Amino acid sequence: ALGVSFPKRGKRFDEYIKAIKTAWTEDVASFHGEFVNFDNVVLLPKPYTPGGPPFLIGGDSEAAMRRAATLGDGWYSWWRGYELEPHIEKFRAVMAEHGRSFDGFHLKIGTPHRGEPPEQLGGKIEAVRRMGAEEMVIAAPVEPKTMEKDVAFWAEAAGLRS
Asked: What do you get for the CA distance between the two ends of the chain, in Å?
């Protein structure tokens, strides 16, 4: 749709991350790659966070895990159709393979709601905590006509309201 090579999209994305980080961290930046080229770029003001805001890489494919482990500051996994613990352990192995630790790394997990009662959803939340995730995003169905009731249900399920 955008006239961009589909087979090279991952390589392009990796290079974009590297180019952005270069511009964020160097006073006078230059970058030369297959897709991005610039010389003597001055980016001001610099990001407030040293090194720039974190890059959170989403996706559960091997390529997404590799990208998160090599270029990312965090990983966003979507918990659907797999056992959580082995999946997160697989990612931990990818991180170790690339010499990365989880110190300062952002692990976030999203999951669709499938009508579980609050107790069962609470179990999912505990599983995510045990795996070391700092955040769990629940794709919750909230209907306009029942929004107040739906939001109260989710608050209770997350232990935010009794």
From this structure: 48
